[in-house]
Write a structure and sequence with these properties.
Strands 1-2-4-3-5-16-6-15 form an eight-stranded mixed beta sheet, with helices on both faces. It has a four-stranded antiparallel beta sheet with strand order 10-12-8-13, covered by helices on one side. It is of the alpha/beta class and 393 residues long. The protein contains eleven helices and 16 strands. The mean pLDDT is 97. It is elongated. The chain has two domains: 272 residues, Zn peptidases (Aminopeptidase, 3-Layer(aba) Sandwich); 111 residues, Alpha-Beta Plaits (2-Layer Sandwich), CATH 3.30.70.
Length: 393
Amino acid sequence: MLAKAQAIADELIRLRREIHQHPELGFQEFRTAALVTDTLAELGIKAQTGIGRTGVVAQIGTGDGPTIAIRADMDALPINEKNDVPYKSQNDGVMHACGHDAHTAILLGAAHLLKQSLAEDNWQGNVRFLFQPSEEAFDGNGISGGTAMIEDGALADVDAVIALHVWSDYPSGVFFFEDGFSLAAVDQFKAWVRGEGGHGAYPHTGSDPLFMLGPILNAIYAIPSRWINPLRPAVVSLGQVSGGTVSNVIPKEVYLQGTIRSHQEEIRQQLWSELERALKLSETLGGSYELEIIKGYPSLFNNETVNNWMREVAREVVGETAVADGEFGMGAEDFAYMAQKAKGAMVMLGAAAPDGITRHHHTETFDIDERVLPLGAALLAETARRFVTGQLD
């Protein structure tokens, strides 16, 4: 399978660069979806469009038997690319800064390989290809691409679902696995601490929300270290604190917002409660507060059995040195919704840029080592092939 994938490496790079040059934001991936549909048609694979608004779904197989789905995301980020490369983004202010262009190209490569396999092997099931929009963000109604595709039936009758994410901070060509909880549930919070305000010369005549903020901030930062079981991952980080306009006026209000990350649902709920308790200190000090929590993606739980399928394939197809266990961190992925609907797992594929320059995700200089594209296609295709030919336990 790897040899077959290497044979189409130039085409995978061409596809990745074509997508990279024309990035589109969430639920706006019309050009990308058309490229996907056209490419699948060239392979003799009929696709459904408009799934999850701008997503694409295709399936090959026997029609009966078990079904495995492979998911790739297609959306870009609102970032202005600074790389000086021939395939630089042509859309000002929009950039593939997380590798979704690579994911889409890899899944198209897997479709190519599996279409060949369908003609050669004794299939006992189906492979479904999910090209998902809007992984990076919710819309105004709290809907992401993953949830939109699920609502449109993209995972109906799916027995297992797999995905791959390139990672520019990991050594190129190495597959990283983590069983169980591997990425965090992510929530946003906004809060307003309020007092009476007043003249800076006469602070005793009113109540000062900036003063209240001192103990509140201490209490917020103490949540993970003092109120959460240290054996349970938890993060509370502030991203903005603002209040006041001039030096001699005590403001009536201070605004703060931040992010909450966790794995277990009970810890997620506890973080919300402890944040509320910290803000209640304002009432003790003569003020008031308002708290808004915006619930985000759930935590990603990687099924150990599915991970082991891909581990074994990686060892056999690429080699023992290409397999490692690692911590994915406290980022978030809406693939988590799909992994809740069917047993699933996501593998990270190291793709550190070959120029030796650190090119972090979600930055204006992000880029990857394109030599990993056939590795990813081979892993996904071979895992699916073994599934539909009854070679996996």
